Amino acid sequence: MKIKELTNYLEQFAPLSYQESYDNSGLIVGNPNDEVHRALISLDCTEAVVDEAIAEGCDIIISHHPIVFKGLKRFTGQNYVERTVIKAIKNGIALYAIHTNLDNVLGGVNSKIAEKLQLESVSILAPKKHLLKKLTVFVPRTHVEDVREALFKGGAGHIGEYDQASFNTAGYGTFRPLDDASPTIGSRGEQERVEETKIEVVYPAHIERQVLVAMFAAHPYEEVAYDILQLDNMVEKIGSGAIGNLNEPLKGEDFLRFLKNTLKLSVIRHTALPDQRISRVAVCGGAGGFLLQDAIRSGADVFITSDYKYHEFFDAENKILIADVGHYESEQFTQELLLELIQKKFANFAVLLTETETNPIKYFI
Description:
By secondary structure, this protein is of the alpha/beta class.
């Protein structure tokens, strides 16, 4: 299949618009119209991973972390980023990254961690705002059904577990076509009064173009009257981290032992163990220290993440147990998640998990 068929599917699950501003998710190397036959999945994209892709006959590498975060001005092979990109291009291997957009969806990276820990009633720890918009359009009564159906087909009107959601208000509109107008209804120079319906629908901001294209195609007017509003509503299935409950509360030491065994950890850096049993668990793959207060407000007994600095451990203030499990360790199951996603959709497409160890951090125990 073509690269874009694969990437479009992944981006339906984790749209690129959900990535953080500093990120560089998406197709980094390759032409969307090129064909691919075999994919290699890895947490990181390194020279060794490209070598593995060459050896395995893979023509695309799908990694969680982008090999390129900042713009490259030269391709001279002076650092591992340049060498990796050069090697991929020379060998016709596409590079694709699905990073914080996969972090920020329910069912993504953090949900996978929660699944490994057998958490129940899992939800997003810090839902995001400003991802929804509301469209209001005024339609002559004769075309209401056509325009409303077009909006639904364009992706508008989907709220939680409901679709085809709209609010409709009857009224009338007035207008006067000017000399250069080509009115569908009425005559130039004469004010017209038309029975209309105001249709209101909500849609994710990243599909705005397709919603508007659908609306314009179905609307009979030469000039369509419509408004778009940015909404402050929280989107419960989009955001950072995840939180859930253990099926049975555990003492602090027992929980850490369970955590170490389950995530196959070499070491856990943590704050003082609490007196009470641990029941509610917050997680964030990668560097999640920015979510500490969200974890505390959500009533979590423990916050599992990585990349904590010395002084940041003091921020727990005996309100929560911080467990730093390591960056690679917290995200290692992302590879498994991507494999499951791709195989679910493309059963006959060859996809492999890397056997290359990409964790740059080693432990002397």
